[in-house]
Amino acid sequence: MKISRQPTPVTIKIDPKQLENVKCFKYLGSLLTDDGRCTCEIKSRIVMAKAAFSKKKTLFTSKFDLNLRKTLVKCNIWSMAFYRVVSWTLRAVDQKHLESFEMWCWRRMEKISWTDYVRNEEVLIRVSEQRNILHEIRKRKANWIGHILCGNCLLKEVIEGKIEGRIEVTRRRNKMLDDLGDRRGYSHLKEKALDRIKWRNCFGRDFGPVVMTDY
Question: 203-213: buried (b, 16+ CB within 10 Å) or exposed (e) per residue?
Answer without folding.
Answer: beeeeeebeee
